Amino acid sequence: MGAGSVRARYLVYFQYLGTDFNGVAAVRGVQRAVGVQNYLEEAAERLNSVVPVKFTISSRTDAGVHALSNAAHLDIQRRSDLPPFSPEVLTEALNTHLKHPAIRVLQAFRVPSHFHARHAAISRTYLYRLATGCHRPDRLPVFEQNRCWALQADCLDVAAMQEAAQHLLGTHDFSAFQSAGSPATSPVRTLRQASVSPDPASPFVLPEESRQLRFWSLEFESQSFLYKQVRRMTAVLVAVGLGALMPAQVKAILKSRDPLGKHQSRVAPAHGLFLKSVLYEGIGPTSMQPPCMPSETQYRSHR
């Protein structure tokens, strides 16, 4: 650290449509694939930090997965004659320099130097969107493509799905719903919420189509999840909704701890999944009002 300079740590919330990205994590090297983190760090380069700014992501999402609100911490060390950025100016500056329209920084907060965005999270909630009555891919409105899993079935047995979801609640060994490559040291997780509910009619569906197309949401909340756990649980609950599994079989699958079984080895498509929220004790937004996009002139006045 330079003489007299101060390093400030921030927690930032950001959102993105994951369609164009190889996940949220940065892709290093010469590959053509790129992650959301690459764009965030590229924008942060314009902040003139004494040391390079690196984002530590709270929740890693795969290629094609979206986030209504993900989080990360970063350190910014300005010259000794400059004060730390205010959270509001940091938010404006990052949005000013972001070069991809599918990423937006929502809010920033100053946090202690020991704060860690991944380890300090006390809750993560994922939302999975389904559409029924989509007999052909071209029946789905273009505005909903890559934002839900379109099922050919006309309906789902939602009551059976809700019953099956109850078997997943609580503290269990979720090995049956874990994909290979998970860095987790333990497969035990505590699932606090697993719900299935109808979505309001999509504003992008024409009136003459709304009788066939219906939308549904699955929500899962835990402190943390195993690799692809949410998409595997979703696939099993959809199998229940389609009548391919009975609700009681979900309990048996969970107890089997076998990730290679016929039903639990299926993974729901990435494009229907959204990271909805990441929560911290005593830190975080009280409201997520969309910020006005700042101008370059506004940012320069604070440098």
From TrEMBL:
CDD domains per record: PseudoU_synth_EcTruA
Positions annotated as active site in the UniProt record: 62 (nucleophile)
Q: Name one GO biological process term.
A: tRNA pseudouridine synthesis
- Top-level taxon of the source organism: Eukaryota
Enumerate the InterPro entries for this protein: PsdUridine_synth_cat_dom_sf, PsdUridine_synth_TruA, PsdUridine_synth_TruA_a/b_dom, PsdUridine_synth_TruA_C, TruA/RsuA/RluB/E/F_N
E.C. number(s) listed in UniProt: 5.4.99.12
What cellular-component terms does GO give this entry?
Answer: mitochondrion
| Sequence ranges assigned to domain Pseudouridine synthase I TruA alpha/beta in this UniProt record | 15-118, 164-281
| List of residues binding substrate | 126
Listed GO MF terms: RNA binding; tRNA pseudouridine(38-40) synthase activity
List the catalysed reactions. uridine(38/39/40) in tRNA = pseudouridine(38/39/40) in tRNA; a uridine in tRNA = a pseudouridine in tRNA
Keyword list (alphabetical) reads: Isomerase, tRNA processing
Give the range the annotation lists for the signal sequence: none
Which family does this protein fall into?
Belongs to the tRNA pseudouridine synthase TruA family.
The protein's name: tRNA pseudouridine synthase
